[in-house]
Write a structure and sequence with these properties.
This protein starts with a strand and ends in a 5-residue tail after the last helix. It has a seven-stranded parallel sheet, with helices on both faces. Strands 7-10 form a two-stranded parallel ribbon. The protein is globular, with a radius of gyration of 20 Å. The relative contact order is 0.12. Strand 4, helix 3 and strand 5 form a beta-alpha-beta unit. The longest helix has 18 residues. Helix 1 packs across helix 6 and helix 3 packs parallel to helix 4. The protein is built from eleven helices and 13 strands. Helix content is 36%, strand content 16%. The chain has 327 residues and is an alpha/beta fold.
Length: 327
């Protein structure tokens, strides 16, 4: 019988790419999620019955243990960018990660890959980065040979970064950002998935890997690059951090006062705190090259999924070509 991998958060942005690649490797894939009925789309990643969504709640020992029963490897892709309802940073990114590692070790599962983030720091003023670091510590405490992947901003078809800002250009001639001088090293989602697969297959040593793409650019430059791809002219307005904090505080307050009816997916105080720090691979850190993965440039991918945000959508290239026709 083929080997089995359990991917917690396997229907999410990164998880679905890991699931697809593991299925191509011939493994059976168990996609562990809170709502399996909303993850049916992962089934065609493999042959009939090869990829199956199952119920799992990483806040519950029994649920996690059941999801990894009989597994030969575990990948944890669960993470949140903001707190909504019961989804808080500590239960998800700290306690949840530690629970998965503890139960994987107890079940004597050979391999564990954990997805974290560049900038993870237990002393960070960002709860997102603080709990990422605490999650890493919990994983290594119970599973010392685990592979921890720390990506920078991840881009790809379903991303919440370029897609989000490209969408904003449809509504206003001004594109507001915070932390315009903050540096990022965007990494392609499928490169991250490839790194996770190498961890599962035993093709990588245990420890921490920081994953970044071939380009390092500040936030403002990334937005200008995105505007070039979608062929729109917008003013990129960099908000001072004090103004961004006030704005984010107002959005957070609105979410609290509305009892969650309004979800702050615009800008949170936690995001503003994280934006105050560069998000690039540390000097001397192991990365994609150490995993024999060639980093994918943004220009090879962004036009493939950002074209719907062009004023003429799929007809932009045709219209541009038509302008060169001579009458």
């Amino acid at each position: 019988m083929s080997q089995l991998v359990t991917i917690f958060g396997g229907s999410g942005f990164v998880g679905r790419y890991v699931a697809r690649r593991m299925a191509k490797q011939g493994w059976r894939v168990r996609v562990a999620v809170r709502r399996p009925d909303e993850a049916i789309f992962v089934k065609p990643y493999g042959t009939v019955g090869q990829v199956e969504p199952v119920l799992a709640n990483i806040r519950d020992d029994a649920s996690v243990a059941a999801a990894m029963l009989g597994a030969d490897a575990v990948v944890n892709c669960v993470g949140i960018l903001g707190e909504v309802g019961p989804n808080k940073f500590d239960p998800v990114q700290h306690e949840g990660a530690e629970r998965i590692a503890r139960l994987a070790a107890a079940a004597k599962i050979p391999a564990l890959v954990h997805l974290s983030a560049i900038g993870a720091d237990e002393d960070s003023d960002s709860d997102y980065l603080r709990t990422k670091a605490l999650g890493e510590a919990g994983v290594l405490e119970h599973f010392p040979c685990a592979i921890i992947l720390r990506p920078s901003i991840i881009f790809g078809t379903e991303d919440q970064f370029f897609n989000r800002f490209a969408s904003m250009t449809r509504m206003s001639p001004i594109l507001p950002i915070a932390g315009g001088a903050t540096k990022f090293q965007p990494v392609y989602v499928d490169d991250v998935a490839t790194a996770a697969v190498k961890g599962v297959l035993g093709q990588a040593e245990g420890g921490v890997y920081e994953l970044g793409g071939p380009e390092v650019a500040d936030f403002r430059s990334l937005m200008q690059n995105m505007l070039g791809v979608i062929q729109r002219k917008r003013i990129v307005l960099n908000l001072p951090f004090f103004a961004a904090r006030l704005l984010a505080g107002g959005f957070d307050l609105a979410q609290t006062l509305s009892l969650g009816i309004f979800t702050n997916s615009i800008l949170t105080r936690q995001q503003v705190r994280a934006l105050a720090h560069d998000n690039v691979v540390a000097e001397g850190a192991r990365g994609l090259a150490d995993l024999d993965i060639q980093a994918t440039p943004m220009d090879n991918v962004l036009p493939e999924y950002l074209w719907p945000f062009r004023a003429s959508g799929q007809y932009a290239a045709i219209k541009s070509s038509a302008k060169n026709l001579r009458t």
